Amino acid sequence: MKHLVKMSDLSTIEIQQLLDEAERFERGESWKTEGDQFVANLFFEPSTRTRFSFEVAEKRLGLQVVNFEATNSSVQKGESLYDTVKTLESIGIDALIIRHTEDNYFEKLISKINIPIINAGDGCGHHPTQSLLDLYTIRKEYGRFHGLNIVIVGDIRHSRVAKSNAETLTRLGANVYFSGPREWIDENNPNGTYIELDQGIEKADVVMLLRIQHERHGEKNGLTALEYHKQFGLTLEREARMKPGSIIMHPAPVNRDVEIADSLVECERSRIFQQMKNGVFVRMAVLKEVMTSNKGEIGKWQQYLKMGSF
Amino acid sequence: MKHLVKMSDLSTIEIQQLLDEAERFERGESWKTEGDQFVANLFFEPSTRTRFSFEVAEKRLGLQVVNFEATNSSVQKGESLYDTVKTLESIGIDALIIRHTEDNYFEKLISKINIPIINAGDGCGHHPTQSLLDLYTIRKEYGRFHGLNIVIVGDIRHSRVAKSNAETLTRLGANVYFSGPREWIDENNPNGTYIELDQGIEKADVVMLLRIQHERHGEKNGLTALEYHKQFGLTLEREARMKPGSIIMHPAPVNRDVEIADSLVECERSRIFQQMKNGVFVRMAVLKEVMTSNKGEIGKWQQYLKMGSF
Amino acid sequence: MKHLVKMSDLSTIEIQQLLDEAERFERGESWKTEGDQFVANLFFEPSTRTRFSFEVAEKRLGLQVVNFEATNSSVQKGESLYDTVKTLESIGIDALIIRHTEDNYFEKLISKINIPIINAGDGCGHHPTQSLLDLYTIRKEYGRFHGLNIVIVGDIRHSRVAKSNAETLTRLGANVYFSGPREWIDENNPNGTYIELDQGIEKADVVMLLRIQHERHGEKNGLTALEYHKQFGLTLEREARMKPGSIIMHPAPVNRDVEIADSLVECERSRIFQQMKNGVFVRMAVLKEVMTSNKGEIGKWQQYLKMGSF
């Protein structure tokens, strides 16, 4: 694995191997990089979970970390993403974690950049480590994906998580359903079928709620928060009708009493904060994989350094 | 000590023990945490001294540090303090340093959060590590608190430092006086008595100046900076009338020529920059105490991790 | 070397020694500081290259790093640069890297501050580590400075790099020429002579392009980007007339198709990204020099610490 920019680049075997590796880290297995290896976190959008989850993962692996924030950088002077990334490569950064507002920002980079890029979210596009931590959470619960009913609820059309998860879960044998406002369902998405929420709730092994992205929409499809909650949210009544043992997931940050009733956020079925915990193990696995499988090239670069011929 | 949120939670014995520990660190004693332990600094208000003093203290103890800034985080998406803190706990942070604009923000957190919180300032409320470093500075000078005359000058009513210090110094046997504009004196505060500045100056073993908080008031009680300085500031004339050996303290940042004449900031009596130096040792002591006395619980969490049952 | 604030403070021997040290670092030689030594990066202007180049250099030397950003600090409360710097010294920072908008900001500091300051750019003044990396890049190419024709193109009058480089290169025996809009040439600068760009291009061993500083000018001397490029930029046509083996340099960030044609940024002659790479080695050399030559004093401070007499 050179880069990790989207889930569809990973085979199901590679996915299972990454989840296995994450499990070893959760069990307490330790692995540290040798010598000084540098990772840069480039976040062009605000983030708490993903940003700090990566930083903790990086430091647990013994990586040296530099945190790039667009507001204090030469991006203010109009520098392009490519030039910024090339700069970081030039000063000796060994891997990049990037979140950017632009869909598929990485397409322009990966052919020209010699260090691995891990996509931490691109516009309405992809967010592969979020998908992996979702998969990890499900596998941890059920030990399998095959035959599980996963109901994804919310703005399927704009959610980077929904699209990646639907595609991957379908590949892994799960039955994916989409629910929420009809205008937000992508009818052309072949990896899931529409289901009424009250029907989906009863069928689901996993209810996967999506965040209402105020910062993208400015409104909830014309509904007030309360109306949205009643029609498309996980209310106390709906939770009571879920199957025994079925679980609730949400990528967070949660809008309490909108996507989910406040008191359900930490209920017994909820895996919301466990997802965050799992995120660290999954990111450690991805980082280890990326740092080791690019070893050859990195070694080469370091040799160039020694030869002074780079 | 699970958390450190306000001075009144500490017994006088605990206070003396923390100051003893700080003294050992000042003398050069070293103590490092074992394995990777993570601390997050969450500052919702600007800060230089407190923020960097904590970061230096943390790193001297071998802690892994992540710096959370509200402006680049999901707080921008409306995430609550509780959810932010719970997130950081979930991703494996072992202790939190928090400064927040809201008085007593920690009340809502401490019952629900399993990791220690060190309060680095809440609104007009508390700032226990500032109090501890002030106590340390006084004890270093006089070797005791009993019988000392401490004159606190400025906006007693809104100062988090004034209130904590007055309460603690009174408990420790010092005589606390308040001075400054009458409107800023809290008549209901039982831990100090009002004194005219010119009288207080001559009586004081410690003149403890408070910062005029432009960012909270916008004005200095209707006075110009020059008028304030003449009436309630430490002028050259007043300093000349201080007792031999008595000292000047200020939590900083100083408004030069307002609370104190510019040339007195680094005069022989001034302990202003020494207070900052002492702050690092005091914070090392607090961090060590918090990290070790919660060891049981943290160990448990790590065991859960290994069992995969969390 | 106590501080490094401007190139004219360095003798030619000191310059060559720093470049030799940088070369050793490039060859893979390792040197780590002993114990916990702290460096603070204070950037009052946006920066990518310089800021991260320093951070990587610091971490490669095993230094503990704190990153100060004006926007989240007490500078917001009106704290002066002196008080900020004195604060960082008080809390135990061993060296400061400062970029500031004000010309010669360091003059007010160096007599009063006991820890070394490395200037990372002051207003339109100096930027010594950029000069050193430029020198390193040239020496690496030609093995000497004597007799080389260096043509500096752009806003000589406002460029901190241009002034330092012209002075130093002249001292080292190179022939320095200035080119670009006549209004931007400083006729009083004794360290270079004006040359028409098309003549300079053919004569140059090094074409050193300067960045158009939109953030300072707001305009390009009344010209559109295209007009500037045609008249004063390195076009494909001009590059074709350069001498065999001659090289192109630019401190970056580059305005593509303004100072230089987009496709030339990574052409064979270009050393632009190599300059960035070299910057890390040069900064490691400067940091090592500053940390070791101040060792006496730092040691003294640590002794004071132990004696508790500071």
From TrEMBL, chains A, B, C:
Family per record: Belongs to the aspartate/ornithine carbamoyltransferase superfamily. ATCase family.
Gene3D superfamilies xrefs: Aspartate/ornithine carbamoyltransferase (3.40.50.1370)
Binding-site residues for carbamoyl phosphate, renumbered to this chain: 49-50, 99, 127, 130, 252-253
Lineage, opening ranks: Bacteria, Bacillati, Bacillota, Bacilli, Bacillales
Subunit structure, as described in the record: Heterododecamer (2C3:3R2) of six catalytic PyrB chains organized as two trimers (C3), and six regulatory PyrI chains organized as three dimers (R2).
Ranges for domain Aspartate/ornithine carbamoyltransferase Asp/Orn-binding: 147-288
Protein's UniProt name: Aspartate carbamoyltransferase
Binding site for L-aspartate: 77, 160, 211
Species for this entry: Bacillus mesophilus
